[in-house]
Amino acid sequence: MYFKHYRCTQCGRDYARDEVRYLCPECSQDYRAGLPLSGVLEAIFDYDAIGKKWREKPDPDLLSAVEPGFYPELPVGNTPFFRSARLAEAIGLLDVSIKNDGLNPSGSLKDRASQLVVAEAIRLRERKVVTASTGNAACALSALCASAGLEAVIFAPRSAPPAKLIQIRVHGASLQTVDGTYDDAFAASLEYTRREGGLNRNTGYHPLTIEGKKTAGLEIFLQNNQNVPDWIVVPVGDGVILAGLHKAFLDLHRAGLISRLPRLLSVQAESSDAVTRYFESGRYEDAARPVTIADSISVKTPSNAHWAVRALQETNGASILVSDDEIRRAQLLLARTTGVFAEPAASAGLAGLIRAVQAHTLCRMDQVVLLVTGHGLKDIGAVRL
Ligand SMILES: *Cc1c(COP(=O)(O)O)cnc(C)c1O
Ligand SMILES: [Zn+2]
Hints:
With about 375 residues, the protein is α/β, with parallel strands linked by helices. The protein has helices at about 45-55, 85-90, 110-125, 135-150, 160-170, 180-195, 205-225, 240-255, 275-280, 305-315, 325-340, 345-360; strands at about 5-10, 15, 40-45, 80-85, 95-100, 130, 150-155, 175-180, 200, 230-235, 265-270, 320, 365-370. The mean pLDDT is about 95.
């Protein structure tokens, strides 16, 4: 184990592993529901030791913040990575690869965060893990808790796609549907853990959600023969996947294993644009009315907005908005050129990539990785043929 301690991304204070659970106690004092989280914690490792070990034998477990012995039984990650010449040609690029995270056990990248938080619950001997979710985080937590024999308590909007609500219930989780938005579910779940205890897995709020999503970036690096791609395209809701990818390459950089970071291309739905506007204007404001078919990125107040913007700044990235129509067209293009069926949020990445090519944000020669974050069968109602 090379995990050393947590560091506050805002004030820089260090905290021992078991001294804090969620946010920096100093910086989160004036946090209230309806604001991006303040005092998000970052896991710090012994990077010198990791650099040496990695050179002997590269292994993402070297950068894990929970001992692998605590992991639940259900395997997560190690999803396929492959080049698609057909997709590249269709959109006017030369080198496009897909990282297909829809092939995780519950069908989305969220399994990575849930795996690590459930491992942490096992380490802390907590019997119950609680989360708010637009859907996929709940499916993931339900599956991972089932495999560990823990109770999952879920707060999700009633409007989540039916298949996701079924997934949650099939794994035996307690589901509390919220008459309202994901942001309302977020507030309800925090209130619940304050009252009833258990470990809260809310995205960005528990620092290990960022560490869990980091493994997608570490795998991309390994599967790309330890080369840093020029761009990684990421659909963004709360901004935790974006932060996780940033953290993956930041950690590799700190360990002396790479000399530059990949540029991150954030893609948001037009109506769920808070990170994009914050990045462009330097001023945070909620999304006015987050209504989109891409339910997994439908967020009014992105919990991890501050780190998401930092990730874009430090990687010289860009952030792009796409319409529901563009998302639907990208879904079909992806399915018909690569054989990968992605849910709407996961298809938004391709819609944004197409826009970025048209805007000359990236060059024809760039090596681009498209991160497909969730499986299309989760929301067949959104497909228009
Ligand atoms: C959660 C999710 C996203 C967005 O991730 P954030 O960490 O909320 O930005 C994108 N696509 C899918 C399929 C998701 O489930
Ligand atoms: Zn702090």
